[in-house]
Structure formats: structure tokens, C-alpha cells
Amino acid sequence: MTYFITLLLLIPLIGFLTILMSPAQNELMISRLVFTTMALHLFTSLAFTAFRILTGGQPLASDSIVIFSSGSFEYAMDFLVDKITLVFLLTGSVLTFVVTTYSRQYLHREEGYKRFFYTILLFYSGYNISIFSGNFETLFIGWEILGMTSFLLISFYRDRYLPVKNAVKVFSVYRLADVSILLAVWANHHLWGTYITFEKISDYQLVDRQLQTHNLIGIVVSVMIVLAAAAKSAQLPFSSWLPRAMEGPTPSTAIFYGALSAHIGVFLLLRTWPFWQHQAGIRMLIGAIGLSTGIVATGIARVQSSVKSQIAYASISQIGLIFVEIAAGLENLALLHCAGNAFLRATQLLVSPSIVSQRIGEYPRTQKSSSSLDRWIPQRLWTALYMLNLKEWGLDFFMYRYLWSPLKRLGAALGFLTTQRVTLFFVPAYLAGAFLCFNGHYIPLGLRQWLPTAFSFLGLIMAIKSFSERKNVWLSWILIITNHFWVALAVSFNESVPANQLLLYLSGVIFSGATGYWCLSLLRRYERHIGLGQFHGHIRRHERIGIVFFLSCLGLSGFPITPTFIGEDLVFSHIHQNQAFFAVFVSLGCIVNGISLIRIYARIFLGPGMHSQYELTYRSS
Q1: SS3 labels along 341-385
Q2: Cα angle: 318, vertex 392, 358; to 5 degrees
Q3: Quick one: 288 exposed, middle or buried, by C-beta within 10 A (0-12, 13-18, 19+)?
Q4: Among 26, 237, 325, 338, who pairs with 330 as Cys (CB 3.0-4.6 Å)?
Q5: Rounded CA separation 553/601 (Å)
Q6: Most distant CA atoms of the chain, gap in Å
């Protein structure tokens, strides 16, 4: 059975690598490779599902695959197969096969033909890792791959303003979900005090016994899970990102935001259901989020002038109802509803390019319904609701004003942080901190316990300044690197961390940071200006530099399975249960760092640039 799981995970990954090495001009070869890959995966999925049904279909957990082990810390990958996995596997396999087959002709002679297909297969690899995951660490690997491929596919038309701008917006929300999972992993570490899998969580007696003595931290884990699921599935207050994600090609919107990616939040709730099923407050929270999202999204969908936006909000409202079903304990109904909604929305998005001609043919036969609600609702209330729905209940404004705008204002207040001052002040301060770390007898005991939080706060300040920087790309890049160093110093003060763990973490930071800095220096030789004030679009003339710089951004942001990724997990394992502020500062730093890195890449290498045939639009529609 383990061989089946390995095969299902490797097929799309091998297809991705094969297409990546294929010549971009040979569309026929790429088309045949992607068709063969997905047909083979679909056949294997059907055979695997049939075999599981015939053998009784009992949950099956694989042996742990240890990736890194040091002292009491162990990073391992686990896989679990049950009915939830099989439903998501069949849904994903069928829909990805249909969409990739459709795309072979739809994207004919498109400039990014090869790029589209290897990104889709990388996405599908991440999707498979997520649905087969047997612990939070494995789930997070697939979760991160989904987020990064989402950014790449939304910004597929990378010489236009809105696709790139909206891709950064969507990635920003995804980053919130990513760090919520990290915090859930940290809280789980302190809840169980040992390595935990989804199979162990399904033991009700074990969970109940643990939560009775650690009720508060159990609530923290559950809230982080709900926050991650709501952000990933575009539930309130994060609903505005899904329509903005429709800037990519129609096939990618069908497979990502209509069918699979938008339902990963549902998968997370179903997978962790045994953990929070007896927490009444959490169930009420999930039900309230789902019900309010369903009501609001239904109203917004009815006033949209774009067919893709209508489908997006209709999908959001149905996912809200699925949240309600999960909160009510209707697992089988939620699975059926999830698969049905995925197939319906993917079909609607695939036929959306021809919907205008279809509606023109149907227009003479349409009549106004006699069961209109106009007579029952006062005109003023009707008008108010219409305007609220037309403005999407201010969801985009809410996210900007209460989430991103405060960060920008705080960053503007840090305008005194220049490259020279960072070098003259913070470098000596860091060296002094490192000296005191190895000579702890110079520090009063009462002060030492606050130093980890203080240093992590300084790292967060570096990240916020990098995020808000609008001119100096060198300063922004250096500040991201210094954030990681401050976090490493904070953890070193917190407890005795093995040197090999710190070396692993900082080796990824140093290598990725140096490579990215070299790419910026090399680009500066060819271009006069590479500031952050606008989108430059240098990817068209310097694609190789852009690819290496993007890989450097992934390495610095902790993309699976880089040394920085494992190092960040190590950092959280050394944060104690009573150090909530320390954990929050490190988490916020991870969020802001990731967004800042993607913003730097987008500003330097994507977008229309100075001389473009496309009109520069400054606001999303």
C-alpha cells in the first residue's frame, strides 16, 4: 500500500521535472507529457481507490520518513489514507486531468505554454502532499507549495499590472494562513510534548485526556486551525482575495480557485475534526463564519457584472455552507458537497469564455420572476443592501485599512532606518548581543528572561521596515536577512540550542541572501534603476537572473524543504509555552518577511515596466 502512495506522490512531481527540462518551443512534446502524466495519475488513483474499497477501506498510516533529527527535535513526514483522502484524491485527479487536457488547445501558441503546465503539475504535487499528509509538518509542505504556485499562476500574464498586483495580494492572505499553521504546530508541540500525527489525534480518549489538563493551549491550536482554513478558503473576512485571483488564465482559475485550492481549508477542518469536535465554542465559531460568509457572498454574487466574479462568490458561499455542515458534524454530507461544488465551479469557469454568446441566445426567452422580493422589502433597505453588495461589503477596504495600512504607517515611522544606520548601530548591537549570549554571567537574571522577546521584536521591526520600503531595494533585502539573525539570537538566549541547529538555519539564510544580493548586483550592471517605486518588468530581458532571484526569495522565506524552512520549525520548537509574545513576534516576522520578498521580486522582475503596450492601472476593479 505504501508503494501506491509513493507512486501517487511521485507521478506529478516527475511530470513537473520532465516538462521543466523540455524545450519551450516544442508544444507537442509538452502536451503529450502532461496528458500522459495526468492520465497515468488518474488511472493509478482509480485503481488505488478501488483497492481500498475492496479491502475494507480502514484508515492506513505509513511509517514516518525522518528528514532531520537533532536531540529531542525530529522533523518527519507522515502519510495517512482514509475516506477524506480518497474523496479529495479522486476529485483532484479527475479535475486536473480534465483541465490540463482542455488547456492543451486553449493555450496553444501562448508565450508561457511550458510555464503554465509545469506550474500546474507543481501545484498538483503540493495538493497531493497536502491530502496525503499524516501530520501538520507534512501538510505544511504541501500548503506552502499551493501558496507559491498560486502566486505564479495569478501572475501568469506577468507583463500586465493587475495580474501581478493581485498575485501579491493573494499571496499576502495565504501567508497569514501559512503562519497560522506554524503557530498551530508550535502550540501542538507544547500540548503533547512529543511528536504527534493525525492518526493519534483521531483517538478521542487521548485527545480528551490531554485537553482536560491543557484546555487553553488546546483552544489556541483550534483557533489557529480555523484561521488558516478561513483564509485559505476565502471565508470572512478574507473573502475578497478569491475574485482577485481570477486574473490568471481561465484553466488555472478553474482548477485552483473554483475546484481544488479553495477547498483545502475544508480539508484542514475535516482532517482535524477529532481534535476540536468537543469544543463547543470552536464549532460555533466555524458555523458562524460559514453562515455569515454564505449570506454575504450570495448577495455579492448576485450584483457582479463579471461572470468569473459571480462564480467566485458563488463558490465562496457554498464553501461557507460546507463550513456549517462540518460544524454540525455532517462529515459525509460535507465531503459530498465539497466534491460537487468543485466539479460545478470548474465546469462553470471552463465554459465562462462562451457565456456571453450563450446568454445572447437565451435573452429573448428570459422573463422577470413573479416571485420577486421587491414587494416585501422596503425600497431604502433594498437600495442599501444593493450598494453594500456592489461594494463587496468593504471587505477589500477592511483588509487594507486594518491589516496592511497599519504596517505601512509603522514602516513609515521607521524612516530613520537607513543602510548606514543599520550598519553603524544594529550590527554592533547584534555583535554585543552575541557576546553576551556566550557570556551570560554578565546579564542580570531578571533581564535575561526578557531578552528573547526583545530581540524577536527588533527582528520584527526589521521585517516591517523592509515591507514598507519603497525606494532602496538593497536596504529592504538586507533587513530581511537581519530579521533572521535577530530571531536566531533570540532563540539562543532562550535556551541552549545545539550549534548544528543554528548552523542549519543560518546557512540557508546566508546562502539565499548572498545569492539574491548577487542577482541584484548583476542586474544593476545592465539596468540603470531597480528601485521599489514601480513594477519594472525586468524578467523579459533578464529571465535567468529572475529565476535565480526567485529561488533565492524562496530559500530566504523558508520554502519547503530548504534549510531555512527546517530552521524556522526548529526556532518554534525552542519557544516555551509561556512565551506568547515571543511566538507572536517571530510569527509576524515570518508573515511580513514572506510578503516583502515576493513584493521585491514582483516589483523588480514583473509588471509592465516603463515602456509597455498595456495601460498602467493603479486600482483593482
Answers
A1: HHHHHHHHHHHHHHHHHHHHHHHHHCCCCCCCCCCCCCHHHHHHH
A2: 65
A3: middle
A4: 325
A5: 8
A6: 86
Angle at 618 between CA 614 and CA 621, to 5 degrees: 90
3-state helix, strand, coil in the chain (%, to 5): 75, 5, 20
> What own/partner pairs with CB < 8 Å and gap ≥ 24 does 68-74 have?
68/504, 68/566, 70/498, 70/500, 70/501, 70/570, 71/498, 73/501, 73/570, 73/573, 74/195
Q: Are 182 and 590 in contact (CB under 8 A)?
A: yes
Distance of CA 418 to CAs 111, 335, 478, Å?
40, 53, 11
Sign of CA dihedral 180, 181, 186, 187: positive
Determine phi and psi for 616, rounding to 5 degrees.
-85, 110
DSSP 19-56: HHTS-TT-HHHHHHHHHHHHHHHHHHHHHHHHHHHHTT
Q: What's the predicted TM-score (pTM) here?
A: 0.88
Which letter, b or e, does each residue of 135-148 get, where b requires 16 or more Cβ atoms within 10 Å of its Cβ? bbbbbbbbbbbbbb
**Helices H / strands E in the chain, number of each:** 29, 4
**Measured distance CA(208)–CA(187) in Å, rounded:** 16
Which of these, 415, 414, 431, lies nearest to 423 by C-alpha position? 431
Q: Where are the alpha helices (DSSP H) in 233-378?
A: 241-244, 250-253, 264-271, 273-276, 280-301, 307-327, 331-351, 355-362
Local structure of 497: helix, strand or coil: coil
Instruction: Write b or e for each residue in 479-504: b if 16 or more Cβ atoms lie within 10 A of its Cβ, otherwise e.
Output: bbbbbbbbbbbbbbbbeebeeebbeb
Q: Report whether 472 contacts 534 (CB < 8 A).
A: no
User: What values do phi and psi take at 415, rounded to 5?
Assistant: -60, -20
Q: Taking a C-beta distance cutoff of 8 angstroms, is the pair 118, 112 a contact? A: no
In this predicted model, what pLDDT tens digit does every residue of 44-62 receive, in sequence order?
999 988 988 888 778 777 7
Q: d(Cα 255, Cα 345) in Å, to the nearest integer?
A: 9
Q: What is the DSSP string of 142-170?
A: HHHHHHHHHHHHHTSSTTSHHHHHHHHHH
Summarize pLDDT for 346-403 with one digit per residue, the tens: 888 888 777 666 665 555 554 555 455 556 777 777 778 788 887 777 777 777 777 7
610: helix, strand or coil: coil
User: What distance in Å separates the CA atoms of residue 470 and residue 311, rounded to the nearest whole number?
Assistant: 36
Identify whether the C-beta of residue 594 lies closer than 8 Å to the C-beta of residue 175.
yes
Q: Which residues have C-beta within 8 Å of that of residue 450, sequence separation ≥ 6?
A: none
* DSSP codes of every residue in 529-545: ---SSS---GGGT-HHH
- One-letter amino acid of 266: V
Angle between helices 136-154 and 113-132 (to 10 degrees): 160
How confident is the model at residue 278, as a pLDDT?
84
